[in-house]
Amino acid sequence: MTLLLVDNLQKRFGGVTAAKNVSFQLAPGELLAIIGPNGAGKSTTFNMVGGQLKPDLGRVVLDGEDVTGQPPRMVWRKGVGRTFQIAQTFVSMSVAENVQMALISHRNETRSLTANAHSLHRDEAIGFLDRVGMADMAERPVSELAYGDVKRVELAIALASNPKLLLMDEPTAGMAPKERAQLMELTASIARKHKIGVLFTEHDMDAVFAHSDRILVLVRGEIIAEGTPDEVRSNAQVKQVYLGETGVQAALKARRATVGAA
Question: Which residues form the ABC transporter domain (predicted)?
C-alpha cells in the first residue's frame, strides 16, 4: 500500500535547478530518509511535500489524494504532521498545554477558547505525552526542559493531529549522541505501531543507517540512489558522491544512464 507518492517533482530558483525528476513512494509505518551533501535539494524536496514550496512540475499524492501545491495548513489538516530542525514549542506554557494547544488548533476550536482552556482535552494530551515518555513532566514549563526532552514534546505535538505522514526536518539536530538514538528509536516504534509513514532529512548518518527502512540519496537535485541502508551503504555511486566534484559528475551520469536504460 502506498501512503505517499511523489511523482517527477521539479523546482527551479532562477537559473538553478534545485530538484529534478524526483520520484519516490512511502508506505504506512515506513521510515524513509533523504540524505545528500549540502545543496543537494533535500530541503526543497521536503518543503514541496509539506506545502511550503509549490513545485514547477510533478505531483504529491497523499493516501490517494493529490495535494500538490496546497498550503501547509491544508496539508496538515489532510494528515501530515511536522517537526523542525529547531524545535517549535511555546516555551512559556507547560508541557501539557503545548499538546493541548495542538489539539485545540487541529479541531479548529481556537475561537472558542475560554478561561477553562487549561482543562480542555487535557487527558488526551497526557495520552500523547505518555507515548513519548513525557507524561510525568506534563506540569513543567517547557522552558525548564533539557533540549532532548523539548524534542520529545515537539514529537507529541506533531502526533496530536493523528497524522498519516510525519515529516521530520533533521530531528536529532542539537542533541547528544545517546539522545539522538533514543529519539529515533522512539519515532520508529511509534511509526510502526500506528502505521505512520515518516519522511525525514538528517545529517547524522548513524541515525539514518540505524533507523531508516529505506534511504534516498540526492545530489544537485537528482536522485542518484535509493534502497535499504545496506544497499545504499555499498552503492558505488553514493561512495563517489563524497569523493569530490569528479565523483558527483560520475554518479549523476551513471544514474541517468541507468534510468534511461530502464
Answer: 4-245
